[in-house]
Amino acid sequence: MSLNTQRSTLKQQFRGHLRAHEYLEIFNNPCYLLEFVSMSAQYGLTHVGDSEPHVELSATYGQNVQLNHSLIALGQPREMRQQYLDFAVGRNFRKSVVIHSDRAEHVLISPDLDRLADLRWAGHFTEVEAEENAPKGRLSFRNHKNRPLHSSDKTVISMLRALSQAWPASLSFDTLLEHVRPSLPDAEDETAARAVLLSALQTLFRLNMLRYSLEACPYDQQDNTQQNQATLLPGVSHLYQQRQDPNFGIGLFNLWHDSANIQLKEAEAFVLRHIDGNSSRKELATLLHDALNRGIVPNTDGKSLKGQRNLDATADKIVGKLLGLLKRQGLMVSGW
Fold first, then answer.
1. How far apart are CA 233 and CA 252, in angstroms?
2. What is the enclosing helix (H) or strand (E) of 98?
3. Would you say the C-alpha torsion 48, 49, 53, 58 has a positive or negative sign?
4. Lowest-confidence region among 124-128, 186-190, 287-291
5. What are 158-173's pLDDT values in tens digits?
6. Three-state SS for 300?
């Protein structure tokens, strides 16, 4: 069997498994959260909550939901409070975490947001044009998932810019505090400064605007001797080439578990193939300069630049734009 035949067979099997999982799987019996909790208890397991803890907070869904939920769920057990919240927001899908029942006493009624100071934080935000008639001082941003965020809070704005500069790497709470300290009203009061930053983090956490981890992530571990060399996540170039086949069913993902959908011009795809961890931005621009000059690839506007001189600025602009895109999507581990 040829390699192409094997690939075609694997693709068909992959699509078949997806259809079977979605529509034809044997065990697919939806149930309420309380029913799931009861079934788990029969096997010595205790329900902890969702793998995305911000969805366990009624404040995530706005003041109206928070107020109504606090009244309806007052005094109720943790599982019943979450069941009421599911009803309130029409939630029909959960990604539940369970533990052995002998650890049940350690499960909190809701996430402890003070512990956010123990985590590392990451995010990328691009400042965009403010909405018409927006309040004075309010800035508008789009995160790496293109979700909008508006804020006039100086601490929040400083934090967004610090995280964006470091992205896709993460920053500890203390490092983040040093970045935002100049924007704090009482920067010399350590306790007050930490409280202000923690409050800002809690707000963005509820909005699911940030990524976080307990320990340093692979993006944080780049070799300083190689930091000028552009390096892709393993498999990105190969998967991008395979995705030009519309029947190829595997997408691109970064190490923050976000999907990445990139569409490149021919010149950009040429550069992508040469990002191997051994070339700097300048060296990549030189490779593209030669390819444009020799007519191997056209400019990003589709026009041929074969035989033209003075293409240094054009090549550097294309490479810079591509590296910026790859950084925003979290598809690079160094070289930003």
1. 10
2. strand 96-100
3. negative
4. 186-190
5. 999 999 999 999 999 9
6. coil
